[in-house]
Amino acid sequence: MVNLRHVTKRFRAKTVVDDLSIEIQRGELFGLLGPNGAGKTTTINMIIGGLLPDAGTVTLQGSGSPRDADIKRLIGIVPQSLALYENLTAHENANFFGRLYGLHGSDLQHNIQRVFELVNLTDRTKDRVNTYSGGMKRRLNIAIALLHNPSLLILDEPTVGVDPQSRNAIFDSLRKLKAEGCTILLTSHYLEEAQQLCDAVAILDEGKLVAKGTVEELIAQHGGQSVLTVETTKGRSRIETDAPVDAIVRIHAEEQILSLKMESPNLEKAFLKITGKHLRD
Ligand SMILES: Nc1ncnc2c1ncn2[C@@H]1O[C@H](COP(=O)(O)OP(=O)(O)OP(=O)(O)O)[C@@H](O)[C@H]1O
Question: What is the mean pLDDT of residues 142-166?
Answer without folding.
Answer: 91
